[in-house]
Structures are given as structure tokens and as C-alpha cells.
Amino acid sequence: MDRDRPSLVVGVLREQAPAERRVALTPEVVGRVQALGLEVLVERGAGERAMYSDGDYTATGALLVAREELLSRADVLVSVRAPDRPTMLALRPRQALIGMLRPDLDLELAATLADTKATTLSFEGLPRTLSRAQSMDALTSQANVAGYKAALVAADAYGGFFPMLMTAAGTTRPASVLVLGAGVAGLQAIATAKRLGARVTGYDVRAEARGDVLSLGAAFLDLGGVSVASEGGYARPLTAEESAAQQQALVDAISGFDVIITTAQVPGRRPPVLVPREALDRLGTGSVVVDIAASPLGGNVDGSAPDVTIVTDRGVTVIGAGNLPSQVPRAASTAYARNVTALLGLLVRDGALSVDLQDEVLAGLVVTHDGVVNRPETLGGSR
Ligand SMILES: NC(=O)c1ccc[n+]([C@@H]2O[C@H](COP(=O)([O-])OP(=O)(O)OC[C@H]3O[C@@H](n4cnc5c(N)ncnc54)[C@H](O)[C@@H]3O)[C@@H](O)[C@H]2O)c1
To answer: How many helices (H) and strands (E) does the chain have?
Structure first.
């Protein structure tokens, strides 16, 4: 054996979904990954849609290969989204796969992966509040990009200016923007809309989000009674009565806004409906609603769906956001690649993969290992 050869190989998969433009490792981090003792193989064209050429990778010392060679040589495969089933079924025992695999959305996925005896790790399970996990927090890094892009999408669809402009033809009033849900994406949407000059208001059901909203120079929408204490940073699902009260309060509160961006999520559940039909009907003609939470399970806005834009009878544009991070592929890939690199730094010990399930970060991330589904209770599927 050539003793100078790195003992472990990481393989960067080209994303298969046509609308997915991100790449799991960017040329920027290849040197850092190599410094961990890993050889970096990149599937040809993997970075193309994120605006990284094959030449950008070879310049860092990474090796370009076809998919087949990548799959057969890599000890660790890295991807953004779950690869297709044939790829996952072809994983070898002990081969590792890292990505945002969403095992919670596909009940059979974890069992299928366990059968391969591969080690699979998905960022959705990261214990995000641990400070040493923060460099690996892909949910946060991607939500940040989504919030930024949502404000741009809204500004683009809105027929007016976001800022107040004083021109020879007179003064225009700034757009009034409401952001519902002030987690990572919501706060970035607030900050971005503020930078564009809009008059911004934020709202979240978690009482402690108020301070975050105010610290960005936005106003906080006070809905009176509906407020919950957070559970580990997340909102708990509201009861049916609380949800009805919240919807009614929002119907009354949101009618004066030009733009609404909704970002509310409850982990493992379908997103709460915050903008029912009645509220949409009370918005002015030309108003724009962007629903970041739009998912196949439903979204925050009545009737919204991913990648679907509708204009209501009353002239309100409702944009069900699709994959927003993919629409800012360079920034999203840069951040994600740093998250992946940090995780590789945790996994690689003395030139080998070390999957210590006593480590609470890895215990959260690992979906399957050694033929066993880890924490099956977390994979109940979104309700
Ligand atoms: N390192 C860390 O400590 C760390 C890391 C990530 C996130 N967090 C915190 O966790 C919190 C949530 O993070 P997220 O952005 O991933 O959350 P998320 O994407 O799950 O939800 C987005 C927001 O929607 C809100 N929401 C849920 N139901 C709602 C409802 N019915 N009405 C109004 N708002 C509702 C949530 O409170 C949350 O703020 C934030 O406070 C965030 O700062 C902390």
C-alpha cells in the first residue's frame, strides 16, 4: 500500500433533482477536507449549477470522476438532498452518506438505508442548540438563505418600491412588510426587507422572539392572548382553539400590509395555517404573499403549494416558495459546504471514520448505522 495515499475518500455527488442547484462541497473547502486526511473525488459537473466549474475543483487538487467510480471508491458520500433510491440501495456496508435526507418525510427510507448497513447521517437531526454543533447547522445556514431570498422574491413580485423614495415627481411611501414566524428564516427576511427600505413588522408565537424582531429595527405585531413559551427554541403546536384564535387575530391584523412573508414551522408537523382565505380576501389589490413554509403537506397560507404562484380574484399574488436556497446556489452551497466540512472534522479520527453514538451530536445526526435505525421514534413522518 502507498503510505502517502490518504486512507479515506470523500465523494461529492452531483445533485440529481433538476431544480437543485446546490453542491455539497465547494472548491473553497477542499483544502480543509484534504487536511483532515481525506482524498476528495468530485462527480463531473457537480458544481456547475452552483457556478463552480470542474476546473475550479481540479485546481484545488480534487479528482473528477464519473458517478460509478465515485460510488465505488468513496468511503463517505456527501450530497445536499437524498440521492435516488438506486444510489441509496447500492450503498455498501460501512460506507457513509451525509446530506439533508429528510428521513421524517419518507417512512420507508430509514429501513431501506439500514438494510444496506451503510452509515447515513442527516442534518435534520442535529441538536442545534449545542454550541459545538453550530458550525454543522445546515438547517440554520439554509434557512438564512431562504429568508434572504424570500424578501427578494417578494420585492420582485410587488409592483411598488420597498423604500420611501423622494423624487422630483414626489415622494413614494415605503412598502409595509409583515413577516410571520421570526425564527432563522423570518429574521433574515426581516433584515433583508429592512435593508431594502421597507417598513417591517415581525410576529412569532414564541414570546421571546419579540426581542429578536425589535433588535433588527422592526416593529413587533402584538396579537394579545396568543403566545407560547418555546420548547428548546421551537414553538409547540397550538391547540385547535389557540390556532383558531390566532387565525382570527391575524385576519384582523394583516389587512393593511402590502407584503406578507410567512415562515412558521413546527418540527415534525405540517405548518400551521396563519393566513386563511378570509385574511387573503382582506388584503389590498397588488399585495404579495410569499409562503416559505409551503410544502406538499400544506403551508402557512390557505391553498399555497411549493413552486406555485396564484393570483386571487381580488388581485393578491400568493407565491408558494419552492427551494429558495437553491435559487442562491453559490451562497447556499458555500455555507452548506462549511457545515459538511465541520461534520467531517467530527467523524474522521486518526484517518478512519469514527461513529460514536455516545456523542450527542452524532447520536442526533445518525439515521442508520450497522444495519440499525437510530432513534426510530423521531421518524414518525410529518403529521
Ligand atoms: N444554535 C442555536 O441555539 C439555534 C440554532 C437554530 C435555531 N435556534 C433557534 O430556534 C428557534 C427556531 O428556529 P427555526 O427558525 O429553525 O424554526 P422553524 O423553522 O421550525 O420555525 C420558524 C418560526 O416559526 C415560528 N412558529 C411556529 N408556529 C407558529 C405559529 N403558529 N405562529 C407564529 N409563528 C410560529 C417558530 O416559533 C419559529 O420561530 C429560533 O429561535 C432560533 O433562533 C437556535
So the answer is: 12, 19
